[in-house]
From TrEMBL:
This is non-specific serine/threonine protein kinase. It catalyses: L-threonyl-[protein] + ATP = O-phospho-L-threonyl-[protein] + ADP + H(+); L-seryl-[protein] + ATP = O-phospho-L-seryl-[protein] + ADP + H(+). The lineage of its organism: Eukaryota, Viridiplantae, Streptophyta, Embryophyta, Tracheophyta. Its EC number is 2.7.11.1. Residues 1-27 form the signal peptide. SMART domains: S_TKc. Its main location: membrane.
C-alpha cells in the first residue's frame, strides 16, 4: 500500500536555464533558482524534504500524505491594477514505488504559505472539501494529476494537466501530451521519466500557457498544451508565495520506473551546481537521443592547447601565442586547484578522466578553467553502453588505465603530470611528427642532470630556474608508473605554492613500456622499471 513519491529534480536547475537561453521570455518575473540545495530559502512542511542530490522530494511512498515547499520570500504579483507577466520552468518526476500510485503534484501561487483545510489524495495538498471554490482561498495552481477522481473534479482522464483557480475543479484540463510539427505524443506523468514543465502568463493579454514534454525532447514544443484566457486578478493578492504541493493516495498496480534516467538528470544537475574559479561553468544541457549537448560559459581566450601550439587545420586558424613563464605557472596552479576541488572538496569524488591541454580553457584574465569534467560519470548514468569506453587521450593515460580500465584520482594526477611537462616544455606529449615521447625526453634530460634544458626554447631563458626545475620534477613525479607513488593533487598544489618542499632524495619509478606505446600496452612488468634520482631539489616560490 505504498503510493508514489514525487520529486522535483532541480527546479530551474541547469536544464531550465538552457530553456531560458533558447526561449527568452518577455516575462516581468522569472522564478529562477539554481537548485533546491539551499533549503534555507524554502519553507517545507509535511513529507517534503530536500535530497542529497539537490532534488526536492515532496512525498515519499507512504499512503495519503502531503508535502509543501514554498520559497520564503513573497513575489509582488500585482502592480497597479494588473497581474505581472511571469514565467517558470521546472523538471519533475513521479516515481511509483511498491504497489501504489498517484496522486500528483501542483505548481502553486498562493497568498499564504500555509494551506489550511488542505487534504491529501485528489486535493493534492492544496485545498479540502470544506474550502473548495471559496474565493478567499487566493490559490492558483497548475496540477499534474495522475488520477481521475470519479468525475467529481471535471478531470479529463487519469493522466492530465489542469489549471485550478481557488478550486480543484479545473478551469481547464487536458490529457498529458505535447504537440510536435506532425502531431502529438502522449506523456505518462507517472512513468518516472523526468518531465519538464513550463508555465507562462502574459499579464497584459491575460493568457496562461502550460507546456510539458519529457526532458529527452530536445526543444520546447512550439505549441503549448494549454493556452487559455484566464484573469488572475481576482485570485492574486499583491504579494504571493510560489511553491509546490503534492499528495499521495491512490492504490494501484505499479511498476518500478526508469531509475536510470532519474539518476542521469540528478547527475547533470549536480555538475551544474559545481562552482569553482578554475572550472568552466556548465550553463545548460539537453539530451538529443544518445547525444548530450552541454552549454558552457564562454572562454574568450581559447584553450591552452591552441595557445601553446596554435591551430592550423581548424576552421579558425590561429598562431601559437608565446605564454610567459608566469602565465604558465598561473595556469598550472589554477588547473591543480580545480582538480583538488573535484577530487576532495566537492560533495562527492569526481575523477575528471580527460585532463589535457585542450580541456584547459582561458578566461578573459587568462585564468585557467578546466572543462569537460564529470562527463564519464554522465555516460555511466544512462548513455548507450556502446558509447561507454575508456575515456582519455593518448599520451595522458597512465599504464594502469589500459590494464584495469578503471579511472581513479591517480589517473588524473598522471594526466596532470603530462600537462606540467607539456606546458613547461612547449612540446606535445607525443610529437605528431617525430613521435618523440615527452615523458621519456624530459626523463633523459633529468638523468643527464640538465632538467631545465627541457624548458620551452621559445622562452629564451626568461624563466625562474628553480621554479622550472620544480615543475619538471613534479611532472615526472606525477608520471610515475605506479599510481600509489604519485602525489595527490593537494600535495601538488602545496609543492607548486612552495608550502611544502619536494622530497629531496626521491627515486622515481617508470615502466619502460609506458614510454614506448601507451595504447597497445596490455600488461606491465614492474621489473623493467627504470629508476632515477635527483640529489637535492627545493620547492621554488
Ligand atoms: C536565499 O537565501 C539567501 C540567504 O538568506 C539569500 O541571500 C538569497 O537571495 C536567497 N535566494 C533566493 C532565491 O531567495
Ligand atoms: C514519509 O513521510 C511521512 C510524513 O512526513 C513520515 O511519517 C514517514 O515516516 C515517511 N516514510 C518514509 C519511508 O520515509
Ligand atoms: C470562505 O473562507 C473564509 C475564510 O476561511 C470563511 O470565512 C468563509 O465562511 C468561507 N466561505 C464559504 C462559503 O465557505
Ligand atoms: C474559468 O475561469 C474564468 C475566469 O477566469 C471563469 O469565468 C470561468 O467560469 C471558469 N470556468 C470554469 C469551468 O471554471
Ligand atoms: C469542465 O471543463 C470544461 C472545459 O474543460 C468546461 O467546459 C465545463 O464547463 C467544466 N465543467 C464544470 C462542472 O466545471
Ligand atoms: C494517447 O492517449 C489517449 C488516451 O488518453 C489515446 O486515446 C490515444 O490513442 C493515445 N495516443 C497515442 C499516440 O498513443
Ligand atoms: C502562449 O501561446 C500562444 C500560442 O502559441 C502564443 O501566441 C503566446 O505568445 C504564448 N504566450 C506566452 C505568455 O507564452
Ligand atoms: C523492481 O526493482 C527491483 C530491484 O531494483 C527488482 O528486484 C524487481 O524485480 C523490480 N520489479 C519489477 C516489477 O520490475
Ligand atoms: C593572450 C590572449 O589572447 N589574451 C586575450 C585574452 O582575452 C582578452 C579579452 O578578450 C584579450 O584582451 C586578451 O588579449
Amino acid at each position: 500500500m505504498s503510493p508514489a513519491s514525487i520529486a522535483l529534480l532541480g527546479y530551474l536547475a541547469v536544464l531550465s536555464i538552457l530553456a531560458h537561453c533558447l526561449f527568452p521570455s518577455s516575462a516581468e518575473v522569472d522564478f529562477i533558482y539554481n537548485d533546491f540545495h539551499n533549503a534555507a530559502n524554502l519553507s517545507l512542511d509535511g513529507s517534503a524534504t530536500v535530497l542529497r542530490d539537490g532534488a526536492l522530494q515532496l512525498t515519499n511512498d507512504s499512503n495519503k500524505i502531503m508535502g509543501h515547499a514554498f520559497f520564503d520570500s513573497p513575489v509582488q504579483m500585482v502592480r497597479g491594477n494588473a497581474v505581472v507577466s511571469f514565467s517558470t520552468a521546472f523538471v519533475f518526476d513521479i516515481v511509483t514505488v511498491g504497489s501504489g500510485g498517484g496522486h500528483g503534484l501542483a505548481f502553486v501561487v498562493s497568498a499564504s504559505k500555509v494551506l489550511p483545510g488542505a487534504t491529501a489524495e485528489q486535493y493534492l495538498g492544496l485545498l479540502g472539501k470544506n474550502n473548495m471554490g471559496n474565493s478567499s482561498n487566493h490559490v492558483f495552481a497548475v496540477e499534474f494529476d495522475t488520477v481521475q477522481a470519479n468525475g467529481l473534479l471535471n478531470e479529463t482522464d487519469g493522466n492530465h494537466v489542469g489549471v485550478d483557480l481557488n478550486s480543484l475543479v479545473s478551469n481547464v484540463s487536458e490529457p498529458a501530451r505535447y504537440f510536435t510539427d506532425d502531431g502529438e505524443r502522449n506523456v505518462t506523468l507517472e512513468s518516472a521519466e523526468p518531465i519538464q514543465a513550463w508555465v507562462d502568463y502574459d499579464g497584459g493579454a491575460k493568457i496562461l500557457n502550460v507546456t510539458i514534454a519529457p526532458v529527452t525532447v530536445p526543444t520546447r514544443p512550439r505549441r503549448p498544451l494549454i493556452s487559455h484566457a484566464i484573469d488572475l486578478l481576482p485570485i492574486f493578492k499583491q504579494d504571493m508565495y510560489v511553491g509546490f504541493s503534492a499528495s499521495t493516495g491512490k492504490l494501484a498496480i505499479s511498476s518500478n520506473g526508469t531509475q536510470g534516467m532519474r539518476e542521469f538528470v540528478a547527475e547533470v544537475a549536480s555538475l551544474g551546481r559545481m562552482r569553482h574559479r578554475n572550472l568552466v561553468e556548465l550553463r545548460g544541457w539537453c539530451k538529443r537521443g544518445q547525444d548530450l549537448l552541454l552549454v558552457y560559459e564562454f572562454m574568450p581566450n581559447g584553450s591552452l592547447d591552441a595557445l601553446l601550439f596554435g591551430r592550423s587545420a581548424d576552421k579558425f586558424p590561429s598562431p601559437a601565442t608565446l605564454l610567459t613563464w608566469e602565465q604558465r605557472m598561473t595556469i598550472l596552479k589554477g588547473v591543480a586547484s580545480g582538480l583538488v576541488y573535484l577530487h576532495e572538496e566537492w560533495e562527492q569524488v569526481v575523477v575528471h578522466r580527460d585532463v589535457k591541454a585542450s580541456n584547459v580553457l582561458l578566461g578573459a584574465d587568462m585564468g585557467a578553467h578546466l572543462g569537460d569534467f564529470g562527463l564519464a560519470r554522465l555516460y555511466e548514468h544512462g548513455a548507450d553502453p556502446a558509447t561507454t569506453r575508456i575515456v582519455g587521450t593518448l599520451g595522458y593515460m597512465p599504464p594502469e588505465l589500459t590494464v584495469t580500465g578503471k579511472a581513479t584520482r591517480a589517473t588524473d594526477v598522471f594526466a596532470y603530470g603530462t600537462l606540467l611537462l607539456e606546458t613547461a616544455c612547449g612540446r606535445r606529449p607525443i610529437d605528431p611528427v617525430t613521435g618523440v615521447n615527452l615523458l621519456r625526453w624530459v626523463r633523459d634530460h633529468g638523468v643527464r642532470g640538465e632538467l631545465v634544458h627541457a624548458v620551452d626554447e621559445r622562452l629564451a631563458g626568461c624563466y625562474d630556474n628553480e621554479a622550472a626545475r620544480l615543475v619538471l620534477w613534479l611532472g615526472l613525479m606525477c608520471s610515475q608508473a605506479r599510481p600509489e607513488t604519485r602525489p595527490s593533487m593537494r600535495q601538488v598544489c602545496q609543492y607548486l605554492d612552495g608550502e611544502e618542499d619536494i622530497p629531496e632524495e626521491a627515486v622515481l619509478l617508470f615502466s619502460d613500456a609506458d614510454t614506448v606505446d601507451f595504447g597497445s600496452l596490455t600488461s606491465l612488468t614492474w621489473s623493467s622499471c627504470a629508476t632515477m634520482s635527483v640529489g637535492s631539489l627545493h620547492g621554488g616560490r
